[in-house]
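Ops channel
N.P.: pipeline sanity check, posting one input/output pair.
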């Protein structure tokens, strides 16, 4: 049997289903908590409807707190055939935790994911993309297949490097060696949050969806034209992308991607499995 041709470009739609985890950890008030609750109450449903309508599989990075607090929302993601991956417990900044604290957060999060899916999660994404020097070593040790928290590439998967040594006083850096963990690179430009969410009290600039669509489409077109075989990873949050005008943005992005030849959408676990088989 002739093997299926490799896709020209894979688009990975990923969703950080944070809900109210950050707000609870910070001790925020009712209004701010309600903004997070828009995710499981409204945004996630709208996203799942779009994905079902378009026949698109996706990956959802879910804090343990969301699994525990909004089980129906998370169960709907699983029932629709999407991947669940690890995103901490209360959306902690892992770089601020002690070694024991960091390990405990990740272990608790893994158990919550196993409880709802019946299997160990394949993927990890650090909340805020904030890593301690030990985080990715711990992620590899705990049996994850891939991470999606680094920005050292844009559409090319690669192995995470361990053992880098940087000496600011001497002005030198010594780079380590790749490990087993696969990296799926990300970018602030391809994350809805910095474009759409204002600062404290709703004060601060928010981008028009048309501006974000322009950025995302140009990244899509570049990757399709210049980086054959690449993986374009978009990061979204149901409480942000789930607003009506922003859902229009996502619909238009999906439509253009589908109009390009050789583009597929897939879950990150499937993407990483194919890449790992080709790059043992």
């Amino acid at each position: 049997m002739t093997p299926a041709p490799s896709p020209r470009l894979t688009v990975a739609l990923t969703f950080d289903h944070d809900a109210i985890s950050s707000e609870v950890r910070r001790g925020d008030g009712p209004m701010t908590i309600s903004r997070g609750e828009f995710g499981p109450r409204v945004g996630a449903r709208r996203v799942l409807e779009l994905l079902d309508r378009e026949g698109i599989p996706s990956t959802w990075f879910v804090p343990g707190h969301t699994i525990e607090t909004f089980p129906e929302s998370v169960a709907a993601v699983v029932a629709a055939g999407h991947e669940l991956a690890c995103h901490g417990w209360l959306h902690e900044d892992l770089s601020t935790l002690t070694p024991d604290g960091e390990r405990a957060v990740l272990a608790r999060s893994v158990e919550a994911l196993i409880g709802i899916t019946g299997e160990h999660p394949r993927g990890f994404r650090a909340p805020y993309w904030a890593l301690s020097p030990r985080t990715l070593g711990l992620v590899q040790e705990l049996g994850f297949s891939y991470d999606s928290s680094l920005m050292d590439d844009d559409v090319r998967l690669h192995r995470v490097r361990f053992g880098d040594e940087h000496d600011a006083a001497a002005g030198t850096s010594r780079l380590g060696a790749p490990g087993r963990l696969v990296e799926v690179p990300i970018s602030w430009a391809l994350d809805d949050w910095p474009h759409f969410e204002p600062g404290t009290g709703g004060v601060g600039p928010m981008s028009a969806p048309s501006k974000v669509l322009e950025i995302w489409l140009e990244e899509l077109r570049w990757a399709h034209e210049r980086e054959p075989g690449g993986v374009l990873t978009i990061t979204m949050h149901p409480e942000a992308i789930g607003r009506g005008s922003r859902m229009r943005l996502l619909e238009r992005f999906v439509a253009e991607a589908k109009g390009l030849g050789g583009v597929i959408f897939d879950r990150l676990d499937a993407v990483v499995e194919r890449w790992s088989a080709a790059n043992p």
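N.P.: looks fine end to end. The two ends are 23 Å apart (CA to CA).
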